[in-house]
Specification:
The complex is a heterodimer. Chain A has one domain: 3-Layer(aba) Sandwich (Rossmann fold), CATH 3.40.50. The longest helix of chain A has 18 residues. In chain A, about 40% of the residues lie in helices and about 20% in strands. In chain A, strand 4, helix 3 and strand 5 form a beta-alpha-beta unit. Chain A has a six-stranded mixed sheet with strand order 1-3-2-4-5-6, sandwiched between helices. By secondary structure, chain A is an alpha/beta fold. Chain A is globular and about 35 Å long. In chain A, helix 1 packs across helix 5 and helix 2 runs parallel beside helix 3. Chain B is about 45% helix and about 25% strand. In chain B, a hairpin with a 5-residue loop joins strand 14 and strand 15. In chain B, the strands form four sheets. Chain B has a five-stranded antiparallel sheet, sandwiched between helices. In chain B, strands 7-6-10-9-8 form a five-stranded antiparallel sheet, with helices on both faces. In chain B, strands 12-14-15-17-16 form a five-stranded mixed sheet. The longest helix of chain B has about 55 residues. Chain B folds into four domains: about 130 residues, PAS domain (Beta-Lactamase, 2-Layer Sandwich); about 100 residues, PAS domain (Beta-Lactamase), CATH 3.30.450; about 70 residues; about 150 residues, Histidine kinase-like ATPase, C-terminal domain (Heat Shock Protein 90, 2-Layer Sandwich), CATH 3.30.565. The chains are: A alpha/beta, B alpha+beta. Chains A and B meet through helix 1 and helix 5 of A and helix 12 of B.
Chain lengths: ~150, ~500
């Protein structure tokens, strides 16, 4: 678990990502954009579910406002995590965004069938990636009206 | 040939009419022995054919028992009486057998016996109609000569599926001596398909069979004497003879052709498989290469951005080379992906508007067009048989080149079309760019072929290779007509949509 401190009324985001390089890039993009986001990281699907269900070490974990989910993960992959989230009455209202390198049509279709809230592919260029992170923040954490539930903020 | 039953009916009529004209009719038949017997097998009537074939005059034989026509063996076995009994019981009896002439010589005859009854149904006697089978030898010899001259193995089969004749090529092909096959079932050498064919064809007329079978080879499997199998093609032709319908089969060993066909099919399959695997490999490799490259590229960019001017000037230079190299590799991988997608992400050829494809290309090029102030014009463009997405990419690459390869001019690009043949449209994309030396006009369509240094014009050398692959996938060709400083005209042919013609 890596946590990035953000000042004030931080928005809780769970990033499920096994590549440390991508985790750091996301942190840097949030930092460059000066966003009040508290980023929690789970390195695989099992840890992500444990965080969301507040099991074991994650007993005090906050309920995330947004989940960024990679598809290809060790132990439990993103598709399974997505299926678990959307089958859980207390979790399924959390916007879950697939953020992956795959551009395969099959992955896109499968993700939406599993009720992903959107499907984004990681851009190859740094500035495009930064733009994407800003867009996610702008739409899902600023513009979109979401139900308040649990312990968020 | 005369039918035995018909002849017997004629004889039957003579019993009632006893007219001289019927005797004259019977005497005119010389190819067949026709005579009457009483209930005891005594000859009562004798025609000219009988005299010719058996050697007795009517005066010599009328009143004699017909058993004298039989061999001693047949007489011992009681054949003469047995035949009359069978004929009386069934009304008709047919057989082939050995008969004896007046001079004692023997011949093989085909014989038909008919029971003769009066109007009350009372048995009055018998009629015998017979034919000397050895007389066929002359015409058979001519036919045999024809068979031997044929380049293929020839086998003649009767309606019972028995081999009655074959040539030397058939002996060699099947590994039998002639006498081992004559009289044998054809299923011994062609186990499946042939005998069934004869039976099913048996009900058809010769004309029908001819109309259907001549020139149409039937592929079957044949069996040699040693048990080995080989593929054959047979051509059947029916032949009506005294013995009924015979079927002559020309049999060609097609092992060599089959083996060649198989080799060809296997080569094609393995080629297309390796081609597919290669495209799949290129796609997967370039996709997976992107991942680590994204890390290199992103972090060198971060380094450059965050630490520019904070390290020494060497560091700044090194970082800029790393950023530039990563960016070029990304473009290369993107282009490789595009190239492999021409094969792996291909869509079906449908009637497509080339004008719509051009609009799509111009939309994707709008940044470059605005930046350069390029003037892109075009004629009215036809519908073609194409993958519209690939056609758009083709236009985009060629127009993009026209915009990129300039030295100071405002790019002017014109797309036109010419109908050079009924089934292909020739498109031309003409630009006012730097042009290409004629010696490179083929080379530029190869993979990774570049004519300029990177500091002059950026690029991966894949764009025109993609164009060539797209055009060839559509069954067309692409070429360039150009001189340095005179602009370039790229021409490609695409199949015309039927809707236009």
């Amino acid at each position: 678990m890596t946590q990035t401190q953000a000042p004030g009324m931080a928005i809780q985001v769970l990033l499920v990502e096994d590549s440390p390089g991508d985790v750091r890039l996301t942190q840097e993009a949030l930092r460059e954009a000066n966003l009040a986001v508290k980023l929690h990281v789970a390195a695989d699907g099992v840890e992500a579910m444990s965080f969301l269900r507040r099991e074991g070490l994650h007993a005090d974990a906050p309920r995330p406002d947004l989940i960024l989910l990679d598809l290809n993960l060790p132990r439990m992959d993103g598709r399974e995590v997505l299926a678990h989230i959307k089958a859980d009455a207390s979790l399924k209202t959390i916007p879950t965004i697939i953020l992956t390198t795959s551009e395969a049509e099959a992955d896109i279709v499968k993700s939406y069938q599993l009720q992903a809230n959107s499907y984004l592919s990681k851009p190859v260029q740094l500035d495009q990636f930064e733009n994407l992170v800003r867009s996610i923040n702008d739409f899902w954490l600023t513009k979109a009206k979401l139900p308040h539930q649990g312990t968020s903020a | 040939m005369a039918d035995g039953v018909a002849a017997a009916i004629i004889i039957g009529s003579t019993l009632q009419d006893s007219g001289e004209k019927y005797r004259m009719l019977l005497d005119s038949i010389r190819d067949y022995a026709i005579f009457l017997l009483d209930l005891d097998g005594v000859v009562t009537s004798w025609n000219a054919g009988a005299e010719r074939i058996k050697g007795y005059t009517a005066a010599e034989i009328v009143g004699q028992r017909y058993s004298r026509f039989f061999t001693d063996d047949d007489i011992r076995e009681g054949r003469p009486a047995e035949i009359l009994r069978l004929t009386a019981a069934t009304g008709r009896h047919e057989e082939q057998g050995i008969r004896v002439r007046k001079d004692g010589s023997q011949f093989r005859a085909s014989l038909t016996f008919t029971a003769l009854r009066d109007s009350a149904g009372e048995l009055q006697g018998f009629a015998e109609l017979s034919h000397d089978l050895s007389e066929r030898t002359a015409s058979e010899a001519r036919y045999r000569g024809l068979l031997e001259a044929a380049p293929d193995a020839m086998v003649v089969v009767n309606q019972a599926g028995e081999i009655v004749l074959l040539n030397v090529q058939a002996e060699q092909q099947f590994g039998y001596r002639r006498d081992e096959l004559i009289g044998q079932q054809v299923t011994n050498i062609i186990p499946v398909g042939f005998a069934e064919r004869i039976i099913s064809d048996g009900t058809r007329t010769a004309a029908e069979a001819l109309a259907q079978e001549i020139g149409t080879g039937i592929e079957l499997v044949a069996l040699r004497n040693d048990g080995s199998e080989f593929p054959i093609e047979i051509m059947l032709s029916p032949l009506d003879t005294a013995e009924g319908r015979l079927v002559t089969a020309a049999i060609r060993d097609i092992s060599v052709r089959k083996a060649a066909e198989l080799t060809l099919a296997q080569s094609i399959e393995s080629l297309s498989r390796s081609n597919e695997e290669l495209e799949q490999f290129a796609y997967v490799a370039s996709h997976d290469l992107q991942e680590p490259l994204r890390m290199v590229s992103s972090y060198t960019q971060l380094l450059g951005r965050r630490y520019a001017g904070q390290l020494d000037s060497d560091a700044d230079e090194f970082i800029s080379y790393a950023v530039d190299g990563a960016a070029r590799m990304q473009r290369l991988i993107q282009d490789l992906l595009s190239y492999s997608r021409v094969g792996t992400k291909a869509q079906d050829m449908v009637t497509a508007s080339s004008e719509a494809a051009l609009e799509r290309a111009l939309h994707d090029l709008r940044g470059a067009i605005e930046e350069s102030g390029a003037q892109v014009t075009h004629d009215a463009l036809p519908d073609v048989l194409a993958d519209e997405r690939q056609l758009a990419q083709l236009f985009q690459n060629l127009i993009g080149n026209g915009i990129k390869y300039q030295s100071g001019n405002v790019p002017e690009i014109h797309i036109s079309v010419a109908d050079e043949s009924s089934d292909m449209c020739i498109f031309s994309v003409r630009d006012n760019g730097i042009g290409i030396d004629a010696q490179y006009s083929k080379k530029i369509f190869g993979m990774f072929q570049r004519l300029h240094g990177r500091d002059e014009y950026a690029g991966t050398g894949i764009g025109l290779a993609i164009c060539k692959k797209i055009v060839e996938r559509h069954g067309g060709t692409i070429s360039v007509d150009s001189q340095p400083g005179q602009g370039s005209t790229f021409s490609f042919a695409l199949p015309r949509s039927e809707r236009n013609s």
